[in-house]
UniProtKB/TrEMBL annotation:
Keywords annotated in UniProt: Magnesium, Metal-binding, Transferase
EC number: 2.5.1.-
Originating species: Antrihabitans spumae
Coiled coil feature spans: none
Protein name: Polyprenyl synthetase family protein
Cofactor(s) needed by this chain: Mg(2+)
């Protein structure tokens, strides 16, 4: 249910929600997303006094970063963190000042996400993100249009790397400036640090796996665990629980749920990267094949082809990571289906989701939040997600 009071348009929506004693998780998802975006807009506004004196084109570059962060996205990570806080007993009405600090920490996860996306797009040589040119492509085009010296593509990648780094640094700033009590800060610090290390470690595993040609299912699952599951669902829930000073048993249940749903979420994304509708994914269909991503889907297909269909295995190895035509992408899709790799990944998603929901059901999270987390998990792993 949404808030029925007339809202003062001069105040950020999250301030209105908190001062009214309304729990954002019980509102429409768009209201909760707006609360995070309001916190992000306020943070970006607070950085202008630092950015503007630098001069040159830096302020324009930072504005592009702000647009990138605020443009689209499902706000999955902050939503899981906020929900985890509520499920562990967090109450916005009881302590609005603390709640505003918690909301700011949750919103900061979007800056970690921005860093990961910007850097991933460079690594994968992606041209679009959410239906727009990727950051490195935007700055490549800017270099070209201005007639600057040097290699345009190199400039674009360098600029995007710096903006990704800035997003990660500002995520830390946003957390540090949140109004949290010292005990909450002490609980949060090691987990926030672990999350940053895990996502960067997962990115490294990804590029090392491609370079070394590691085709194993185990390697692909390890990348999913650290590159996606950790900072997408597991650690956000962990962070929310810690901010509410949850007990060890709830934290363990959250982490089990988060890891399994996070991996299932990535497996679904892997399927969408090959079979998805570009209007939903924001990227051309089949791009994961052209980019050479060593996904669980691909690893399972190779494992099965090596055992029973050597010709198909060779086609897969020859095709991935090349400039495939649409017809070649269709051929690989059929091969993945015929080998049973798609059914295998669907089965994994189902198994992981069922195990996650069992851990959630047996936890001490509040009943309302259990229902909400169940709905969020099913949405994240749905065939049309």
């Amino acid at each position: 249910m949404g808030c029925t009071r007339t809202r003062d348009r001069s105040r950020p929506i999250w301030e209105v929600l908190l001062s009214a004693g309304v729990v954002p998780i019980s509102t429409e998802p768009a209201e909760l997303s707006a609360a995070f975006e309001s916190a992000l807009r306020a943070f970006f506004a607070s950085r202008r006094e630092l950015v503007d004196p630098v001069g040159g084109d830096f302020a324009a570059a930072v504005r592009h970063l702000e647009e990138f962060v605020l443009r689209g996205g499902k706000r999955i990570r902050p939503a899981f963190a906020w929900t985890g806080w509520l499920g562990a007993g967090g109450d916005p009405a009881a302590d609005p000042v603390n709640a505003s600090g918690v909301l700011q920490v949750c919103a900061a996860l979007e800056l970690v996400q921005a860093c990961a996306l910007i850097h991933d797009d460079i690594i994968d040589s992606s041209h679009t993100r959410r239906g727009f040119p990727t950051v490195h492509v935007t700055f490549t085009d800017r270099h070209t249009s201005h007639g600057w010296s040097g290699e345009a593509a190199q400039f674009g990648s360098a600029a995007a790397i710096l903006l990704g780094d800035l997003a990660l640094a500002w995520a830390d700033d946003m957390v540090r400036e949140a109004k949290l009590d010292p005990a909450a800060v002490a609980r949060l610090a090691p987990v926030w640090s672990a999350m940053r290390t895990e996502v960067l470690g997962g990115q490294f595993l990804d590029i090392a796996g491609e370079a070394s040609g590691d085709e194993s299912v185990e390697a692909a699952l390890r990348i999913n665990r650290y590159k996606t599951a950790s900072y997408t669902i597991e650690r956000p829930l962990h962070i929310g629980a810690l901010l509410a000073d949850a007990d060890a048993s709830l934290i363990e249940a959250y982490r089990t749920f988060g890891t399994d749903i996070g991996i299932a979420f990535q497996l679904r994304d892997d399927l969408l990267g090959v079979f998805g509708d570009p209007s939903i994914t924001g990227k051309p269909s089949g791009d994961d094949l052209r980019e050479g991503k060593r996904t669980v889907l691909y690893a399972v297909a190779l494992q099965r082809a090596d055992a029973s269909a050597p010709g198909a295995a060779q086609r897969l190895r020859d095709g991935i990571g090349t400039d495939l035509s649409d017809a070649a992408v269709d051929d690989i899709r059929r091969t993945l289906i015929d080998l049973g790799a798609v059914d295998d990944v669907e089965h994994r998603i189902g198994t992981l989701t069922a195990r996650a929901l069992t851990a959630l059901d047996s936890s001490s999270a509040t009943p309302q939040v259990k229902d909400r987390l169940r709905a969020m998990a099913l949405a994240a792993t749905a065939r049309n997600s």
